[in-house]
Amino acid sequence: MKRLVGSQAREQMLIVRLREKGYRLTPQRREIIHLLSGDTSHPSAPDVLKRARKRVSRISMSTVYYTLDMLKREGLIRELDFYDRDNRYDVNMEEHINLICRKCGMIEDFTEALPVSFKMIEAQTGFQPEGTRFEYYGYCKVCRRTRKQ
Fold it and tell me: What is the radius of gyration, based on Cα positions, of the chain?
């Protein structure tokens, strides 16, 4: 699991936002928030459960799904839907491109400038974008090496 710079600040922001909305922050929810705040791998719900059980043994899959759904409804994480694998969760709410490996399923954020700005879209079409989901599919460095062998 890769740790983000500022993951503690992100974790605190999530906790503050949920408290403002009146949510109870149980040890299980706090652990899920802690894991997501410092994880750039875009974990699935089963991944979150497996990792959370290492520190909070009394946590169920339903608690994980409910907490992920709550965070998603509050606009604090994104759910990445896939038809051929488990959905994944992204704590990076900035507009960015997801690089998705077709072989291993690894997802990496690419945070350079997006191809077209929201302002340009609105100026040219009158359509007011509220969010994006850019995905590039291909093969990560590791899988590219194994494909050549």
Answer: 17
